[in-house]
Amino acid sequence: MPNLDAAFSALADPTRRAILARLALGEATVMELVEPFDLTQPAISRHLKVLEGAGLIVRRVEGTKRPCRLAPSAVAEIDQWLAMLRRALETNYDRLDSVLATMKPEQ
Amino acid sequence: MPNLDAAFSALADPTRRAILARLALGEATVMELVEPFDLTQPAISRHLKVLEGAGLIVRRVEGTKRPCRLAPSAVAEIDQWLAMLRRALETNYDRLDSVLATMKPEQ
DNA sequence: CCGTTATATAATTGATCTATTATATAACTA
DNA sequence: TAGTTATATAATAGATCAATTATATAACGG
């Protein structure tokens, strides 16, 4: 799954997570996203491109502005993959629990 | 959150995700994890170090072997962070729904 | 003790990432 | 139309990453 590569590595960067957190409050233009950071506009534009490529945001054109907002698809894909780990963890815990349950009476 | 950095970038690599998928089936030693991949043992050892550093796996010592298994903490932290995005996405969808609901009668 | 097995670490190389500056484009505004 | 604003792209430098080979360590089996 090449999308998972893109989605997870997009999320690996704290600036990009902060951008997503900002977009969780609602749509924002590029300059609005530049403002809170100590980074140049091209740097933010690049981060946005990465987030868009990963399917984590979408952009529309509005005159000279390109407001960004969160997109749902990538999050769903990540959730789906993590569900596999969660299931495994639960299963292993259950197994551990039953091992402990078996041991206790004998100790 | 520096742990999120580590966890997401650990998950960004397809080899590491494959290792986790393998561990979802149960504990495995380093050599057992090397076998299915077309990579050298040092390469896998490095990936395991990254996964351990991210809190995604734990290892125990068993003679000369170091069996690895999944660890729950990092997944929980990731889930928690993604929950924020999910909430925002739902909220935005609700908003869109209500906008559409408002528009329809007038169209 | 010795050779083997399981794993880790170091040095190195090539690739990828991130940020910067400089510049381009395209749409508003006067 | 000229100047400004919003954004994108290119060139580039420095940092980090991932893989390899070579080597170290440490436990196990005879």
Task: Record the SSE blueprint.
Two copies of one chain form a homodimer.
Chain A: H1 2-11, H2 14-23, H3 30-34, H4 41-53, E1 57-59, E2 68-70, H5 73-106
Antiparallel strand pairs in A: 1-2
Helix pairs in contact in A: 1-4, 1-5
The first copy, chain A, binds a DNA duplex (30 and 30 nucleotides) through residues 9, 13, 15, 29-31, 39-43, 45-47, 49, 63-66.
The fold-level CATH name of chain A is Arc Repressor Mutant, subunit A
Rough outline of chain A: elongated
Overall mean pLDDT score of chain A? Answer: 88
Query: Helicity level of chain A, as a percent range?
Result: 55-70%
- By helix and strand content of chain A, what is the structural category? mainly alpha
Characterize this entry briefly.
The structure is a homodimer of 107-residue chains. Chain A has 107 residues and is mostly helical. Chain A is 67% helix and 6% strand.
Quickly list its features:
homodimer; 107 residues; mainly alpha; Arc Repressor Mutant, subunit A; two-stranded antiparallel sheet; 2 strands; 6% strand; elongated; DNA-binding
How would you portray this structure in words?
Two copies of one chain form a homodimer. Chain A has helices spanning 2-11, 14-23, 30-34, 41-53, 73-106, and strands at 57-59, 68-70. Chain A is mainly alpha-helical and 107 residues long. Chain A has one domain: Orthogonal Bundle (Arc Repressor Mutant, subunit A), CATH 1.10.10. Chain A has a two-stranded antiparallel sheet. In chain A, helix 1 (2-11) packs antiparallel against helix 4 and helix 1 (2-11) crosses helix 5 (73-106). Chain A is elongated and about 55 Å long. Chain A starts with a helix and ends with a helix. The interface between A and B is medium-sized, with 32 and 32 residues. Chain A binds a DNA duplex (30 and 30 nucleotides) through residues 9, 13, 15, 29-31, 39-43, 45-47, 49, 63-66.
